[in-house]
Amino acid sequence: MDILRRKSSKAIVPVSTLSISTIPSTFANRNNADISDDFPAPVLPTIPICIGFGNIRIALGNNSGEAADRDPRQWQRQDVSDSHAASSSDITTFDGDNDSGSVYHCDCIDCMMSNEEESTIPNVIYDANTGKSYMKGRFFGKGGFAKCYEITESKSHHVFAGKIVPKSLMAKSNQREKMTQEIAIHQSLSHRHIVGFHGFFDDSNNIYIILELCRKRSMMELHKRRKALSECETRYFMKQILEGVFYLHQHRIIHRDLKLGNLFLNDDLQVKIGDFGLATRLEHDGERKKTVCGTPNYIAPEVLTKIGHSYEADIWSIGCIMYTLLVGKPPFETSSLKETYSRIKQVQYKTPQHIGKPAMNMVANMLQLNPSKRPSVVKLMKDTFFTSGYLPTSLPLSCLTMAPRLDMLESHCNRKPLGEMNLNGYTEQDILSCRVPSSPSRKTKPNSEIAEPQRVNLDIRKMLQTLKEQIGSVLRTKPARESVSSADELTDPAAQPVIWISKWVDYSDKYGFGYQLSDDSVGVMYNDGTRLIMMANGYNIHYINREGDELYYTVKEYPASLEKKMKLMNFFLKYMNEHLMKAGGSIAVKQSDSLSRIPYIHQWFRTQTAVVMQLTNGTVQINFLDHAKIIMCPLMTAVTYIDHDKNFKTYRFQTIQENGCCKGLADNLLYAYEKIKLMLQNSQAR
């Protein structure tokens, strides 16, 4: 057995020996996207790896979880607000008996924000063990001690996520042991629903962990943009989550921090379970762990009460995840951590009437106080919820920001009675009130006194009012600064918009307003108030009439009444292809395109200095004549600023309140505030 030894101290901490497999120099890669799940884990000769911390060397070993079960009193105490922001952040380990509203943090990699000076991260990262070098790309995000960048392997040009941890922040032995355990567990895993682990190494300043890149972020961002999902979407995600957790439990691993923020999504919207900082491996059947760890909204009662926990704690967390997907908020969430803990211990949560019975029964089975009564992952995978309605094999990327097409879901879920579906935070009757027809030839009669476009107008106006209040709070802090840090830590790439307007052309004097969205779909807002959208595949067409009905066609099949508008669409498309858009090959038609709904322009206007546009997902975009742009999202509470030099950065409004921003962004936010006020006044007048 190797040992971890500090030269200046007599303390000795045992750490087992570990060898890791080298990663092959080439992987098949499609368009620099994620490494394909079709490739098995490599079986190659192994090389022992050590990581050095100054005078300290760690030989990474097959740590089975002993580091994670250290005395909770070693954790640092930090007060947090009793809000959803606190419970949904990276507060991941705490003392469950603490009723003061404080949280006890462990010192694992992603659990605690550090004010330490950041270490230097080179633009070219070199792995001395394999001889590979990686080019550091765009900043992808941060969590506690670690920063994440897109990194590209120089020879193969394969793109990965590089998780980078400064050694200066690994001074304490329990911090090092936490990292040892995280790497040891994660590197042993290989499954299509687990974030791929592709190696690790170090240099004099940092530790580098090479991971699969999940470009579509996590399900937390999906939750913030969408709130509640449909039951069909929930089936899709739950199936993959359960498959990933089944693999973990097969290998005696308890994740212990399953939550939306640790469920990542790749380009195909496939779930990838990540962040094994709190995971532990059981030595034998029947072993119970005693560490109080997890995230408040997802933590099991037996973890809080310290009676010992095992795989069933993960089942509880999955129940909380499923409830959150269906309802739009966690089951035990309150404004107070103390009250949240109390509700967890009493299993006190509400059962919304609009959620289907099979779905809520499955949730109830997982959220049982007695861990032994909770079903295993195997039983959950056979639950009637998965056979009670449509289970998609894929979902369109538009689901990240918009509910899928109701007509297609109805055609697959025709056995389900009204009221059992939940789309974009509303019941099925709410959605039907928006008069989304079930087919181009048949309109669905509204089931509510409030019909489209009034319903949509009310929702969009509410989001516009929220955005005005958010910007107003920022402006009251007088955010403009002469000198503002450009550090990556102030940005939040996870809050970047999913869809924005990349090009536009104004022919409103004759025909209307044409635009291209960032996903390469093209839309026209005609002067008669109707709208036509051609998806990026160049095949599917969405038509929105003056009453707000959404009608779905293809370029090969549409009514004669749309002939003129289709010709105008092609005119706009040709103009933008020749003058504005990049020329490129068409995007292949996917099966999931039949479910896709994308946001469209709800309103727009021009001033002497800018073009102001609002999308139906609540995003407001302003393109200034000096080529600066701001894209504001009330759901993500963030603004994306594109300056004159085309630098693209996204900031949370709270970050700007706390740290200020450049004068250019501050001026643009003030302009946006005035125009949004005007938009609200005009909508009220109508």
UniProtKB/TrEMBL annotation:
Keywords: ATP-binding, Cytoplasm, Cytoskeleton, Kinase, Nucleotide-binding, Nucleus, Repeat, Serine/threonine-protein kinase, Transferase
GO biological-process terms attached to the record: mitotic spindle organization
Catalyzed reactions: L-threonyl-[protein] + ATP = O-phospho-L-threonyl-[protein] + ADP + H(+); L-seryl-[protein] + ATP = O-phospho-L-seryl-[protein] + ADP + H(+)
Keyword Lipid metabolism: no
Gene Ontology annotations for the cellular component aspect, listed alphabetically: centrosome; cytoplasm; kinetochore; nucleus; spindle pole
Any GO MF annotation of the entry: ATP binding
Residues annotated as domain Protein kinase: 134-386
InterPro entries: Kinase-like_dom_sf, POLO_box_1, POLO_box_2, POLO_box_dom, POLO_box_dom_sf, Prot_kinase_dom, Ser/Thr_kinase_AS
Keyword Glycoprotein among record annotations: no
Source superkingdom: Eukaryota
Domain annotation POLO box: ranges: 500-578, 600-681
Enzyme nomenclature, EC number: 2.7.11.21
Compartments (UniProt record): Cytoplasm, Cytoskeleton, Microtubule organizing center, Centrosome; Nucleus
Annotated Pfam families: Pkinase (PF00069), POLO_box (PF00659)
Name assigned to this protein: polo kinase
Species the sequence originates in: Cyphomyrmex costatus
